Amino acid sequence: MYGMIGKMTAVEGKRDELIAILLEGTTAMPGCRSYVIARDPAGANGIWITEVWDDQASHKASLALPAVKAAITRGKPLIDTFDQSTVTEPVGGHGLPVAAGR
Amino acid sequence: MYGMIGKMTAVEGKRDELIAILLEGTTAMPGCRSYVIARDPAGANGIWITEVWDDQASHKASLALPAVKAAITRGKPLIDTFDQSTVTEPVGGHGLPVAAGR
Questions:
Q1: In 3D, which of A13, A18, A17, A20 has the Cα closest to residue A44?
Q2: Sign of CA dihedral A75, A79, A85, A91
Q3: What is this structure's pTM?
Q4: In CATH, what number does B2-88 get?
Q5: Interface confidence: ipTM more than 0.95
Q6: What pLDDT, in 10s, does the model give residues B27-73?
């Protein structure tokens, strides 16, 4: 599996709007086993995103999906900074069903 | 929901053994929606753990489960350092079914 742990900071006051766009735009992504969007309780504008994919190719392919591309276009102006992005190699656990669309 | 993103470093050469203990010890935790154990591709001994719980109380209660307590006892000597622990407030996404045991 292929994982990512990312943190971004929304433009001041735009976090909820950005989260709503992310939630709408990231449904039905083939190869996606987990995609969790979370507020950062330590900061008013921080967002954590943790992802688990079948493999790196399925993550890359998701970026070409119309709904994801639309979310990126709508969300980009609401992002102030990308603070952290870490690649991981998930090995197991809970909440990792076989991905939809396979 | 209540989330955690943690990073630890296993004692040199003990990462796989520690991961196996974590995988065995963290099944059937009431209130747990997601618990993903991942290798850190950037380091030979790093482990990332990302968790989503119904609430902070369910996370706290899990630490008293016999299987979890046993895993902590067995795993502790294999942990070199806790490098990072971040609390999050998950708001949605994929891979977050209603937790088992509710």
A1: A13
A2: negative
A3: 0.93
A4: 3.30.70.100
A5: no
A6: 889 999 999 999 999 999 999 999 999 999 999 999 999 999 999 99
Cβ contacts of A91 on chain B, cutoff 8 Å: 19, 23, 37-39
A chain contacts of residue B35, beta-carbon cutoff 8 Å: 93-95
Q: What are the tens digits of pLDDT across the range A5-28? A: 999 999 999 999 999 999 988 888
Q: Chain A interface, mutation test: which of B88, B89, B98, B102, most A Cβ atoms within 10 Å? A: B88
What's the maximum distance between 2 C-alpha atoms anywhere in chain B? 39
- In chain A, the residue whose alpha carbon lies closest to the alpha carbon of B47 is A88
In chain B, residues with a C-beta closer than 8 Å to the C-beta of A88 are 38-41, 48
- Closest residue, chain B, to A50 (C-alpha): B50
Cross-strand pairs, A51: A4, A35
Per-domain residue ranges of chain B: 2-88
